[in-house]
């Protein structure tokens, strides 16, 4: 069996085992599983590093969603046990990456590649985009889940006025730090798995470390972008009947912030798209700059 056939077999087994576990723990519903399985297969066929990013995002997000469930139940109007995600939420957090992964695999014939603009700027940009995607998704989730448990009151990102917990666009110091930490974990996972599964030339291998600070920044940037969109284009209001912050207008709802243009999935998709593009460009510029520094250093010897 060649490497792609092995990856396909491993991806199927892994996907079905994860799907069974996720359903049992109510991390996703059946529609989420039906979408999640092909997404996982696509990622693993393209390379183990991509599957690792998806798995790190899934496991850490699921774990943090379960953390402090009783307190979140009292705050979140749309609380679901286990954070049960449906097909729309799965796609909002994986569709763009899946498209980039397919393009990456098609260009490179199913073989994984290193960040190396000398070999291919397009490949470097695609890698950067995929990393930025999961750094953003993880940053947003970590920030939201840990920020909700913060002892400090959130402040609306557009006005810095204190708002109720659960308000779209509300930020805390704890949540902000969590977003950067999430990006760091995504970058570290990409580098560590790459050391085991991807062959890089000696002068290229050390440049893969560039991903860690870029991913950390992407996690923070993605979370801030999500908060900004949530504060402006997503409605938040306080329901005097339910005594909770809600995302829909109604006769018992007092507006807090935002216009009723995007829902939560829409905000996630837009923030992911913007962060993906920014990270892709940053990786190409950063890697190109490091190649230039290496060339100049060799020229002086």
UniProtKB/TrEMBL annotation:
Keyword check for Isomerase: no
Subcellular location field: Membrane
Organism superkingdom: Eukaryota
Entry keyword set: Membrane, Transmembrane, Transmembrane helix
Main location: membrane
Entry GO terms, CC: membrane
Membrane topology recorded in Swiss-Prot or TrEMBL: Multi-pass membrane protein
Chain segments annotated as transmembrane: 86-107, 177-197, 209-233, 269-291
Family membership: Belongs to the TMEM19 family.
Official protein name in the record: Protein PGR isoform X1
Organism from which the protein derives: Phoenix dactylifera
């Amino acid at each position: 069996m060649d490497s792609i056939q092995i990856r396909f077999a491993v991806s199927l087994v892994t996907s079905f085992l994860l799907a069974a576990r996720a359903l049992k723990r109510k991390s996703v519903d059946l529609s989420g599983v039906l979408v999640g399985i092909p997404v996982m297969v696509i990622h693993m066929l393209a390379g183990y590093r991509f599957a690792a990013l998806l798995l790190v995002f899934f496991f850490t997000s699921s774990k943090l969603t379960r953390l402090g469930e009783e307190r979140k139940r009292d705050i979140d109007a749309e609380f679901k046990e286990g954070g049960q995600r449906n097909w729309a939420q799965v796609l909002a957090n994986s569709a763009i990456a899946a498209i980039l992964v397919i393009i990456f695999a098609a260009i490179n014939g199913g073989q994984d590649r290193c960040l190396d603009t000398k070999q291919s700027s397009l490949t470097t940009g695609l890698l950067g985009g995929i990393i930025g995607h999961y750094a953003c998704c993880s940053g947003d989730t970590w920030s939201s889940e840990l920020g909700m448990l913060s002892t400090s009151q959130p402040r609306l990102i557009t006005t810095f006025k204190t708002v109720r917990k659960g308000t779209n666009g509300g930020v805390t110091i704890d949540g902000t730090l969590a977003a950067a930490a999430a990006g760091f974990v995504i970058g570290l996972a990409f580098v560590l798995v790459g050391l085991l599964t991807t062959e890089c030339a000696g002068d290229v291998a050390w440049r893969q470390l560039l991903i860690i600070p870029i991913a950390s920044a992407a996690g923070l940037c993605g979370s801030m972008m999500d908060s900004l969109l949530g504060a402006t284009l997503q409605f938040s209001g306080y329901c005097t009947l339910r005594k909770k912050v809600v995302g829909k207008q109604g006769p018992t709802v007092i507006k807090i912030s935002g216009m009723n243009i995007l829902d939560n999935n829409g905000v996630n998709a837009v923030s992911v798209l913007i962060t993906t593009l920014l990270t892709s460009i940053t990786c190409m510029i950063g890697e190109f700059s490091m190649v230039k520094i290496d060339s100049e250093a060799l020229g002086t010897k």
